[in-house]
Fold:
Amino acid sequence: MYPTALTQLARANPFSAPLFTLQKVEEPKQSLHGQSHRRLAAASAAEGDSCEFGSQKYFILCGFGGILSCGTTHTAVVPLDLVKCRMQVDPEKYKSIGNGFAVTVREDGVRGLAKGWAPTFIGYSMQGLCKFGFYEVFKIVYSDLLGEENTYLWRTSLYLAASASAEFFADVALAPMEACKVRIQTQPGYANTLRECAPKMFGEEGLWAFYKGVVPLWMRQIPYTMMKFACFERTVELLYKYVVPKPRSECSKPEQLVVTFVAGYIAGVFCAIVSHPADSVVSVLNKEKGSTAVQVLKRLGPRGVWKGLIARIIMIGTLTALQWFIYDSVKVYFRLPRPPPPEMPESLKKKLGLTE
Structure:
């Protein structure tokens, strides 16, 4: 048969060869019981790996890598996040990044810049566990559903779907601590610590206080994470294809981690831009009582939702690069399987006439 649909998809793929000569090939028959799993990489443990790709140990350690990468990095930039949130909710008082830092230090002292560090560390550690751990799970699940050839052809869509699915659950884990963090940072005098803030919020508004921002959090974080993972994965492909002068297999571990950091920073810049309007809504919503996301969005207007964008680009670009670097470093340290950038399967090459 002549696989015209596959040919059209492959021609539309910027990473494929520009021209194809179709060959008529016989497709081997497969029984349902004997059909092998098709994944982005082989499931068996390669020499030197501590576990199999897709094993329970693999997922647990990936989740641990997510805790380290998200919890530590978000906590490290709490001062910048605090100023960014205050610029979003009170732009008249906090006019710029420099002015925001100056006003905060003048009113609260240097220690005031660390407000909200506890809910930040706890919340984003839980988010990182779900974000990276579930991403690896969903990537394999969706790859098995698609099959080997479609996994390659539709790999960007697979990255987007897997990351969106993972972030849905990650935000449910993050929402309570995010609500506490924003309340501590943007309402001076409300509470100074998590132990003060959480009981006070629950006493005033009940459980709803911790989850009223989950929908705008999904609006912010799901596009952010889809961009974070898909852009990172494809940027890594581009860097190894056009920038790095040798194949990934010939690069040392430190060289591979440098590529990881660069790809992570590039992905982070795009992440900040696509998710910033929703981030502004979340910041205002968690500060105010009784407001809805639609009401806040109307009040901020088209210009108001972009307040604090430069601060967020700096913060998220650095964060994303460091997160990918830490996550990949955890994989290296525990000798987890790290599949190379995907290559076209041999069966697809035969269908497209790219092999003899």
Confidence is low (pLDDT under 50) at residues 1-25, 27-44. The domain at 5-352 is CATH 1.50.40.10 (Mitochondrial carrier fold).
